[in-house]
């Protein structure tokens, strides 16, 4: 299942803080059916079928415009594997618990 990282950056806001815009975007993501959303300090991670996730990304991108922002930059990274199942928990677990070479 694809894991998608989304960063929505409203440009030209009245304040330096953008947390209210990010909160709106996260509410869109966390309420989406068929999509798991995780908020991180710098992005929102989404997990689900691309048919379910991509409309959520579009809604997140559009959200700041509804709050009066004139410009939005959205960065999207899609991580998808076909050779084995992929999910956020498994990705983190493999980093924390897999044996790795020590230098």
Oligomer status? single chain
Instruction: Say how many strands there are.
Output: 4
CATH topology, by name, is Alpha-Beta Plaits
Principal-axes geometry comes out as: elongated
Q: What percentage of residues falls in helices of 4 or more residues?
A: 25-40%
Overall radius of gyration = 16 Å
Per CATH, which architecture? 2-Layer Sandwich
Tally of contiguous helical segments:
3
CATH class label = Alpha Beta
How many domains is the backbone divided into?
A: 1
Give a summary of the structure in a few sentences.
This protein has 103 residues and is of the alpha+beta class.
Plain-language structure description:
The mean pLDDT is 90. Helix 1 (19-30) runs antiparallel to helix 2 (50-66). This protein has 3 helices and 4 strands, in the order βαββαβα. The chain has one domain: Alpha-Beta Plaits. A 4-stranded antiparallel β-sheet has the order 2-3-1-4, with helices on one face. It starts with a strand and ends in a 6-residue tail after the last helix. The longest helix is centred in the middle third of the chain and has 17 residues, at 50-66. The chain has helices at 19-30, 50-66, 88-97; strands at residues 3-11, 36-39, 44-47, 71-79. By secondary structure, it is α+β, with helices and mostly antiparallel strands.
